[in-house]
Design a protein that fits this description.
It contains 6 helices and no strands. It has about 130 residues and is mainly alpha-helical. It has one domain.
Amino acid sequence: MNAEMFSIVAALALILSVVGIWNGVSLAVSRRRKEIALRMAVGARGADIRRLVLARAMASVALGLVLGLGLSIALSGWVRGLLFDIEPTDPATIIAATAMLTLSALTAAYLPARRAAATDPTSSLRAE
């Protein structure tokens, strides 16, 4: 019962985090539309823009992962009684969860990055 409940809550948390990252990166891209158009006008390629947007998004994700890992290790004693046949600081589980969160965040940030790379600099600069 507890495992099912934790699984459902974890899936909802993952969905909320992906939607939040996608929303945040989309908002950042729309606010930086003029800057992105200027970069493209002076010669930046689409790959450069995608890399810029993804790097900034993943920097925030890295900070969140470091803080989350620190808190999870600090609070591991609290959930020890709810886990069976596994330690709360099991390296394989932590690595798998970190990899899944990183991949989910990268996927969520890729769509706004691709949209930013497809920006037409002329129309974006004229709109301002």
